[in-house]
Specification:
Elements lengths: L2 H26 L5 E8 L2 E5 L12 E6 L7 H11 L1 H4 L6 E8 L12 H21 L9 E6 L4 H11 L9 E7 H7 L16 H5 L3 E5 L9 H12 L16 E4 L9 H9 L3 H7 L2 H10 L13
Parallel strand pairs: 3-4, 3-6, 4-5, 6-7, 7-8
Antiparallel strand pairs: 1-2, 1-5
Helix pairs in contact: 1-4, 4-11, 9-10, 10-11
Length: about 300
């Protein structure tokens, strides 16, 4: 991409920020729990206001990448590309669509660093970058529209329910949801402390799995979460009935797909923020997609705050 082309795109995205701010405030002042605020279509990489999907494009499978996007990195791209690789995605009914989802209330993280409207701008830029990369290798990947969505609910089960009940304008065919997550998120998904109002706690997950939704889990071996075998053993506990006392059902294991580790999927947004704060733009360029890297630099997003601290 030439310097003049990038400059033109940055100018376009700057006009997008106040639009996103207005859309976000409208959403936050409503009683809605989910809304699509922008869409990036393969035929037009400029983010635009979402329209109800044409009948032949109404998705039957909705891949959901849910994150704080602070900022989006090559880890997010790897998760999406892996799911949209034809060897994986062809297993599921078409049409396919990707939803980038940002929760304005996160169960584990307090708001910090980039303002919410900037997160949505970053997501929009990332969506354009992602589609470009998919188109470049369209013989291997499914090239799909990408929606930018917001939600007020913090937990995956509630998010899927909100999309089902309040997303019919965009997803009228009631698509099956496939959440794209890392192993660390899987451990939180099956953590009883998040479901204190349910007895047994994992009965909270019944509607999610009963609806046919799935989890696509990229394994991430490290010192905190153990080896690949350790992580596979966690899912095996569900499969052999060791979670039944907490309400976990053996058959749910068939709806949890494990994906081999990908070094790029382990890149943290924290690392990107620290590199940006120190002005290490070469590293930022290696850790982010091109448009995101240039936006972070041009807008000085992490000059003062590179933190994404978790709540106690």
């Amino acid at each position: 991409m030439t310097e003049s082309t990038m400059s033109s795109k940055l100018s376009t995205y700057r006009t997008l920020v106040p639009q996103l701010d207005t859309a976000l405030k409208g959403f936050q002042s409503s009683s809605s729990r989910f809304r699509v605020v922008k869409t990036v279509h393969p035929s037009n990489l400029t983010p635009h206001d979402p329209q109800p999907a044409a009948k032949d494009e109404s998705p039957k499978t909705l891949f959901i990448l849910d994150s704080s996007f602070n900022p989006p990195s090559i880890a997010h791209r790897s998760l999406a590309q892996s799911a949209l690789h034809k060897s994986s995605s062809d297993r599921f009914p078409k049409p396919h669509r990707l939803l980038l989802l940002f929760a304005t209330m996160n169960a584990d993280k307090a708001p910090s660093a980039a303002p919410f409207e900037q997160r949505l701008a970053l997501m929009s830029i990332f969506a354009s970058d992602l589609i470009r990369s998919l188109r470049a290798e369209s013989d291997e990947y499914s090239v799909v529209p990408v929606d930018i969505g917001v939600t007020t609910v913090p937990y995956y089960t509630d998010k899927s329910k909100a999309i089902e009940t309040e997303g019919s304008e965009w997803y009228p065919e009631m698509p099956k949801h496939i959440h794209l997550v890392g192993y660390d998120t899987l451990t939180r998904f099956f953590a009883a402390k998040y479901y204190p109002k349910f007895n047994p706690p994992f009965s909270a997950l019944d509607p999610y799995f009963d609806a046919g939704h799935r989890l696509r889990v990229t394994l991430r071996p490290d010192e905190e979460y153990g080896t690949v075998d350790d992580q596979k053993a966690f899912v095996n506990k569900l499969e052999v009935g060791e979670m039944e006392s907490e309400g976990g059902k053996r058959e749910w294991a068939k709806q949890v797909d494990l994906v081999a580790p990908n070094p790029r999927a382990g890149v943290s947004s924290t690392k990107v923020r620290k590199a940006a704060k120190s002005g290490n733009w070469k590293e930022v360029g290696l850790l982010c997609t091109p448009g995101v890297a240039e936006w972070v630099r041009s807008e000085g997003l992490y000059e003062e705050d590179d933190k994404g601290a978790k709540m106690a």
